[in-house]
Amino acid sequence: MSEANMKKSILRAYAPASIGNVSLGFDLLGAALKPIDGSLLGDEVDIEIAEQFSLVVTGRFADKLPPDPDSNIVTRCYQHFIAVLEQQGHAKSAIPLLKMTLHKHLPIGSGLGSSASSIVAALHGLNQFFAEYFGKIPFTENELLLIMGELEGQISGSVHYDNVAPCFLGGLTLMAEHKEQVALQLPMFENWYWVSCYSGMNVSTAAARNILPKQVSMSNTIQFGRQLAVFIDALYRKDEKLAAAMMLDVIAEPYRKSLLPRFDESRAFAEQHGAIAFGISGSGPTVFAVCDNIENAKIINQWLTYNYIQNDTGFSHICQLDTSGASISHS
């Protein structure tokens, strides 16, 4: 795209919601979500050339963010990205100033990777924008993931990739955290439906981590390792029954469920009505139920809507995995 056309156009980046941990993979597994009804479940960031940098925040959950744009993670993404461009040898005078607009569709502290979605949309959008502007992409996929994890750590207090990786890459991802390969994409069952229900409450990642014990027993450590290994093996062998049987959280759920009203009741209903797995999405309060048919998913989705949601900001969606991850469009 020519520079003249870029000055007239708006680039939009979209990044989907995600499930961190996926029950059995604490900090190691993540899954991107896509509602089957076509509704939007993720943040968007618009980028366009401007006279000076600015950030505008809109969307259903915009009022839950700090009013000062300088404290917004999208501004930090922009500042970090520009600093690295300058380190790469781009003259400051040659880098255009931008107007960025964050469409905040995901609730904060929901367990749906809200901060990760904003970070991924911002950085993926900037990477694509400057690839078109300079004719060369600034960062490889893996380099960009490392930056995403670093910025996510500024929000949560520690670097982890189980939300940014699936949000960016799509599908189900396993964190390798190797400098040359941050995350690996795993095969998944296309007939699985993921009912994802946000109660409307907020649970901060830091608070959810503080409730966990500082040490894990030997028996739980062995069980955690066994479950994760068997689960991944079952995915590659297409053994749905065994994979689902491994989706139990022995690390975080026994402690975090105390933060989530009606969790045990919700799990019991889901399992009695055909869910093959049930767990906490990330740090909560969102929960998810996995079903291998749409009929059971509809029953569980309806029950959670009326019984797990606590206020009018809550919602529930029947999803499948978003295999595309972050995407770009122009207008």
TrEMBL record:
Function: Catalyzes the ATP-dependent phosphorylation of L-homoserine to L-homoserine phosphate.
Residues that, per the record, bind ATP: 107-117
Location(s), subcellular: Cytoplasm
Pathway: Amino-acid biosynthesis; L-threonine biosynthesis; L-threonine from L-aspartate: step 4/5
Name recorded for this polypeptide: Homoserine kinase
A GO cellular component entry from the record: cytoplasm
Keyword Nucleus: no
InterPro entries cross-referenced by the UniProt entry: GHMP_kinase_C_dom (IPR013750), GHMP_kinase_C_sf (IPR036554), GHMP_kinase_N_dom (IPR006204), GHMP_knse_ATP-bd_CS (IPR006203), Homoserine_kinase (IPR000870), Ribosomal_Su5_D2-typ_SF (IPR020568), Ribsml_uS5_D2-typ_fold_subgr (IPR014721)
Enzyme kind, highest EC tier: transferase
Gene Ontology biological process terms, A to Z: threonine biosynthetic process
UniProt-listed NCBIfam families: PRK01212.1-4 (NF002288), thrB (TIGR00191)
Catalysed reaction, written as an equation: L-homoserine + ATP = O-phospho-L-homoserine + ADP + H(+)
HAMAP family: Homoser_kinase
Family: Belongs to the GHMP kinase family. Homoserine kinase subfamily.
Provenance organism: Paraglaciecola psychrophila 170
EC number of this enzyme: 2.7.1.39
A single MF term (Gene Ontology): homoserine kinase activity
Keywords, sorted A to Z: Amino-acid biosynthesis, ATP-binding, Cytoplasm, Kinase, Nucleotide-binding, Threonine biosynthesis, Transferase
Keyword hit for Ribonucleoprotein: no
Domain GHMP kinase C-terminal per the UniProt entry, residue ranges: 232-303
All copies of domain GHMP kinase N-terminal, residue ranges: 73-171
Superkingdom field: Bacteria
